[in-house]
Amino acid sequence: MTFVEKIITKFLRDPGLVKYKDIEKILFHLGFEKSQGKGSHVKFSHPDCDQKLIFALHNNDCKKAYKKDVHSMILKNKLLQP
Q1: Residue 81 counted as domain residue
Q2: What's this model's pTM, rounded to 2 decimal places?
Q3: What is the residue-level pLDDT of the chain in tens, covering all 82 positions?
């Protein structure tokens, strides 16, 4: 099991335990592209998803609600292969 797979497993169990830098690694691993938003905001988009993810970063982390949004988006769009 690779490092990213371990992070994904931990993230799927409880999204609130994972830091933003690890969520960023997960998103890059799943094919998301990052673009800078305004101020402290960061945007992620995926070619197979209509919805974009937007995070407000403070102290190099984001709120638990953003982490739950990532979790539901990954599951809803079936971005993880079994």
Answers
A1: no
A2: 0.88
A3: 789 889 999 999 999 999 999 999 999 999 999 998 888 899 999 998 888 999 999 998 999 999 999 999 888 888 876 5
